[in-house]
Amino acid sequence: TILTRHIQKLNDENVEDELLLEQLKSSLSDETPPATSNLLKLYEEAGVVFPQNVTRRFDEVETFHKVILQNRKTHLSGEIEAAQARIKDRDAQKKELDRRRAEIMQILKSGGALEHFLLLQEEAGRVESEVATFRKKLELAEQIESTKASLGVDRAQLTLALQNDHKEREDAIKRAVLAFEQLSESLYVNERAGNLIISPGKNGLDLEIKIDGERSKGISNMQIFCFDLMLMQICHERNMGPGFLVHDSHLFDGVDERQVAKALQIGAEHSEKLGFQYLVTMNSDALPKEGFDGQFNLQEYILPVRLTDENEIGGLFGVRF
Description:
Oligomer: single chain
CATH topology of the largest domain: Rossmann fold
Helix content: 55-70%
Radius of gyration: 47 Å
Strand content: 5-15%
Largest sheet: 2 strands, antiparallel
CATH architecture of the largest domain: 3-Layer(aba) Sandwich
Distance between the termini: 82 Å
Strand order of the largest sheet: 1-2
């Protein structure tokens, strides 16, 4: 109730003043005058004789300190009396409020409304709890909205930075796109070739390969092949990268035999031109027999290493095939 909350507030204020009283009384007890006489006695025992004007100066300093100390004690005593008066006044208010609360409760009890009052009090507590919960939810929602706005600004700044960076690297991007298209065209002569598109997006750079017509798994895999070789070319131009490229036979799943042959030939020629190793693991029965151009001989590139599951030494790095 209002009376109960008022009494609690007075109790809290009394606790604060009681703590203040302890501090004031401690400060008052610590106030002691400076012992100037002890200093004079020390000099006398050392055989030092002061002129009369110096002795008078010591007396004046001692008097000055006593006046300051007295003023300090007077101020602290006044603060103590004021705090005690506030506590006494609050105690009187508490007594009156408590009397009034008991009087109201007696009236409610005699009129049979006490039970109804307690139910209303319980309902009021429940509603107050819900209000506090909704208030916290509102604060959280406002925080989220503020964070979203801040993130929106950050995202806009990052997007602008990405766009500027994309523009600054336009020449390098063009070289990568051109290299990809040349590889794709050499793989699909007189057929649909893929176009590499590099553009700034919401979550960073977007890489997209556009192919006219129907897109199958085999065609998609060959575009990955072209993309990897393009990366090796870019690394060679910048004198970086691991110096080798490895493809597993899964990359050629669903690819026409003649396209596989063309890809292997392009990989061999590209690696010799740029000076990197191109390694392909493939089952012997999956090796293409036709589709190679010119004098290209696949047998010259087959390594003597054979992976087999017929014995324990036929694996690679402990993996059996």
